[in-house]
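Q: Structure tokens for this one, please.
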Amino acid sequence: MPNRKKDHQVGLWARTRGYFLAGLLVVAPVGITFWLSWLVLSFIDARVTPLIPEAYNPNTYVPFGIPGLGVLVLLIFITFVGALTRVLLGRWMVRGGE
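A: Here is the predicted structure, written as tokens:
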């Protein structure tokens, strides 16, 4: 006759291991996503923030850094360039069609 207590302990260990692995499969991608997002955000901030004139840079006015400021400035700049390009390209196409 098999020992029921030993079977229960093995089952509990296997179940606990399964729960741990399931939790790891959920937490790891979320953690990696946040870490990579922070890495990209920091990289862009480090490159763009020094290009902001001191008069417009809030880091000169507040005693703490504002994460994402460089990304925000970059997005505004890209949007501005896109709008300007669309207007100029639109004019060029209208002139070409006349």
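A few notes: Residues 14 and 98 are 76 Å apart (CA to CA). Residues 4-97 form one domain.
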